[in-house]
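Side project, low priority. Logging it here so it doesn't get lost.
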Amino acid sequence: MNTQKVATIALALAASVTAQAVTLVSSQATYVQSGSFAAQNFGSDANLLVKNYGTNGDWTRKTYIAFDLSTINSSDTSSALNLRTAGYLGTYSGGLHTFNVYGSAGSSWSESGTTFNNAPGNAGSTFATLSAPMSLLGTFTISSAQVASSAISFSSSQLQTLVNSNLGGSITLGIARQTVESTGNTIVHRFVSDEGADGPSLDVAPVPEPATMAVLAIGLLAIRRRTR
């Protein structure tokens, strides 16, 4: 096979891999709030709120997001959760805040019926965590420069495993803030919900097989030789 044909095949394979990448919008999303708000639902809100107040008061919030994977059938994926910040409530004195991301199979909860009292994995958990069936997938941070309106992307091997294990089904992701602020009217982080534009999304892209990568390498080498 001549170098031109090898290069053509390599480019065609690269194009096919790229074409399969998809971005899924969330199928449902809401936040829940502690204390006297524990039985209240916030599914229709335009923003998803997260705060760790650190006590049994009214002000801790956690966020839940579901994704439908029924259209994804690739056996290997590289996944990333995308969020957009939407400013904040309360008083912000600056600094870096850390968030825990949790995940579980399925999405049997309801956007219009989920509360702090019945949210998945919330019973018996601390204000910074979620418990079974939710498991920790990793963390991300938000700086003072990212609070107003910034794209936040989270990925981890645990998220990839969760997606791969539930292809054709659905998953639930939960976000709880690790950083505690319990003095006065401190910051509540806000993210755009699926009720508004630019809400949560999940990037899912096939990971090329080793054989595909080898052909791509050969094709690139052939192109390099032809351009000398």
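Brief comment: The longest helix spans residues 3-19.
Revisit when time allows.
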